[in-house]
Amino acid sequence: xxxxxxxxxxxxxxxxxxxxxxxxxxxxxxxxxxxxxxxxxxxxxxxxxxxxxxxxxxxxxxxxxxxxxxxxxxxxxxxxxxxxxxxxxxxxxxxxxxxxxxxxxxxxxxxxxxxxxxxxxxxxxxxxxxxxxxxxxxxxxxxxxxxxxxxxxxxxxxxxxxxxxxxxxxxxxxxxxxxxxxxxxxxxxxxxxxxxxxxxxxxxxxxxxxxxxxxxxxxxxxxxxxxxxxxx
Length: 232
Fold this sequence. Notes:
Elements: E1 3-9, H1 16-24, E2 33-39, E3 49-53, H2 60-68, H3 92-101, H4 107-110, H5 119-132, E4 137-140, H6 149-166, E5 169-174, H7 180-183, E6 187-190, E7 195-198, H8 203-212, E8 217-219, E9 228-230
Parallel strand pairs: 3-5, 3-6, 4-5
Antiparallel strand pairs: 1-2, 6-7, 8-9
Helix pairs in contact: 3-5, 5-6
């Protein structure tokens, strides 16, 4: 069971401004720390999509790095055409199939450098890149954080279908819970509550558990095909 007990200390130099904040809020500079403790119980379980979700500063990326750090993929885009930035050893057919499977279906855009693509195209390009990687688990940090919510939803749906079809393992680290119904994850770790949930067969129980995790959404397919609307 991947478990973690992370303490992050911050000990800034006691400048005039720092001292004022310490006094204003009765803080002890030695006790300015963050503590994240929990477990992501996926060992020995069958899954394809996981989500680590929560508000800013709740430890999403810290936990992901602690538990799955070796699986992070760094993408480098240096070519004049993003199709040439895709992993070496992959055929044109494999690359174009990956592009279209995540909604990056504009051949002219495949011939552009990464930096000129729109935010939505960049996200889809990154998604295609990650499913082409020969990695056991793929971590996508700040998932959909810089795209509009419609692009986020369609991108989430596309990557979910693609990784399940390829039987890969994909973890989205995100601050938006609206993507969850589109990703249809097998498990969720909510950093707002530091709580873990793995999908079960009983959709009624799933809905109850999602509500207890503080996630407001409509739960579809394995979580009940829009059968439950949870409003927090």
